Amino acid sequence: MKYPLSNIQLTALERQYVNEALQANWISGSAGSPFLARFESLLEQRHKRMYALAVANGTVALELALRTLDIGLGDYVIVPALTFAAPVAAVLNVGAKPLIVDIDPDTWTISPEAVADLVGSTSWYGRIKAVIAVDLLGHPCDFGRLYEAAQREGIPIIEDAAQAHGATYYKNPTGTFGDISTFSYHANKAITTGEGGSFLTNKRELYDRAKRLMNHGMTPGRPYYHEEPGTNYRMTNVTAAIGTAQMERWIELMAKRSQVAKWYGQVLPSWMQPRPVAEWCTPGMWLYTVTVDPTIRADLLNNLQAQGIDVRAIWPAIPDNPAFAAFEMDRCTVARAIAARAIWLPTSATMTYDDCQTIAEAFRQVEAVL
Ligand SMILES: *Cc1c(COP(=O)(O)O)cnc(C)c1O
Description:
Shape: globular
Bound molecules: pyridoxal-5'-phosphate
């Protein structure tokens, strides 16, 4: 593809740190890994959290969050109907069941009313053990109202911020909200380590337990003594070397992505509507997302794709996947309406104004003959 949907941008800094890790002969993620310690401390500073743990990917970060909260067989977790499917799969992977609720049309994030309805219903009383709040496509959830809906009943919130590096909710950065926040550093995310994820919290007891669970259930400082059954979700020191460089380049990488979003805003035709943004937030730029007339969407995408421009339809609504259909709680009409209209445009730190204009022009020409 001439214009890939996303593109990574690595520099001499990533290469230098990876070389340092290799030269130190330190390629695992064992306790004391120097780049893991640096990466985690950068995460704590950036996201204003007491504790961070780097893990193998964003999906196991969510599984770790659920397991740390003791969620498993017989438990239920509320998830939004529009998202990449990892949070829904994570719930099933730990043995719990997802309760899929609709999203809010103004933010495209989980509907606080839908959460309040489920949490308040007598039939679910005592069985809902968490809410996974996904900051969808760079937009933070409506945390004030979510806290009111969930935390009044003592139900913890897990913030899945995988798509929202650099966003703020009333000036507080994503990664700060809920009992636990998670990130992904997959190659298509705004900060990347190829594969990678993180777990953040302010609660010492959650951090201690997560650190033990992700490291075979062994008590730190006491090798081969297993306090409880655990697993291995560790990130390697080499991966953390890339992450350290990316976190040190945070301001540059975020600025480049927001610049691309501004350019798109200037050059795209008015029939392409940018996704809505609530006035209480600054979105983080992941993939630039617009809605188009659903009756021409497939033709638009096919035409642009044939020209080497990797524009894509967003995910179908979660309950429209055979794997998750059984867990739809109400009619997720907002999620379906958006899933039918929304598309992603190529977005990466490497793009120029001319790239945005070329893409906008291609849309104009194709739409004119449809
Ligand atoms: C990418 C993503 C994940 C999973 O991340 P991986 O690192 O690919 O496992 C989880 N949640 C959301 C919302 C994502 O977009």
